[in-house]
Amino acid sequence: MTLNLRGIIPACITTFDAEGQFDEPAYRRYLQWLLAQGPVALAINADTGEGPHLWPDERERVLRAAVAEAGPVPIIAGLSAMFTAQAIEEAKRAEAAGARGLLVFPIPAYQGTPLDPAIPVAYHEAIARGCGLPMVAFQLQPALGGVIFSEDTLVRIAAIDSVVALKEASFDARLYLATRRMIERLARPIDLLTGDDNFVYESFVMGAEGALIGFGTLATDLQVEMYGLTRQGRWDEARAIWERILPLEEAVYGPPVRDYRARTKVALKHLGVIDSTVMRPPLMPVASAEAAVVAALAAAGIEPVSAPGRDRPAVSVA
User: Fold this and answer.
1) DSSP assignment, residue 73?
2) Cα angle 181-241-11, degrees, rounded to a multiple of 5
3) Which domains does the chain carry?
4) Whole-structure pTM over 0.90, yes or no?
5) What is the pLDDT of residues 110-157, one digit of tens each?
6) Neighbours of 175 (CB within 10 A)
7) Which residues of 176-203 are buried (b: 16+ CB within 10 A; e: fewer)?
């Protein structure tokens, strides 16, 4: 199955009502606003969307709503599990719901060093045997519950036919560059998708084919424009956009980084895209971040929309 991941792929939030239940009408309005800005795909039920905190039936409902709204825009389903058989079942469920790809999260069994490459390789191979969807492997910084794979591990995972890309989210520029060079040496190169929200522009300079990022759900149209400029070699113009929105990224992704999900909802509420910043416990809202996030939005010239989600309005940018 061909899957174009070369562009901006926002990792989407999940909307909850005051009782903490999935708010599907609000979710659809949010997706309509987001899709109008030109993402190449959407990542659903990833960390930004609190996917690991949802019940399986909720994840399926969220996926089906996203597939219905996205139309031809591919949906990449976050795949988080505790063990292999569960991962295969979740992958099949995502495929049945209409997902066109999987973002395979690191699992607790990877914790501890050294990590035997056979463990993550066998995990990805089992998912590939059990489900026909293309897979995006995921290297994630340990501060967010992830793991940094050895080069041997990455080479062996990349050799699995259904692995089409790697999301590199170490938040370490030197490691990112080493990973880029490793991919270039593969017999069958895969796409490198930056997950490093703090140096998205620089990731494109260093060769990323796309960006699968939580920050992609904010200033999406500007990031889509920035990506397009990099493809045309118009680096100075692309950099100007990045410098414009970087303070917003820093306000959302500042320490503790785990709060970026709640801060993202604060930003979207201020923009008029969503009404509720409710999080799925144990995650909590962060009202204290509101002033910094709102100031960063204003500094970037990103203004609230007048009627979020109606007739897919374009984001208003000063």
Assistant:
1) S
2) 65
3) 8-299 (3.20.20.70)
4) yes
5) 998 899 999 999 999 999 999 999 999 999 988 788 899 999 999 999
6) 15
7) beebbebbeeeeeebbbbbbbbbbbbbb
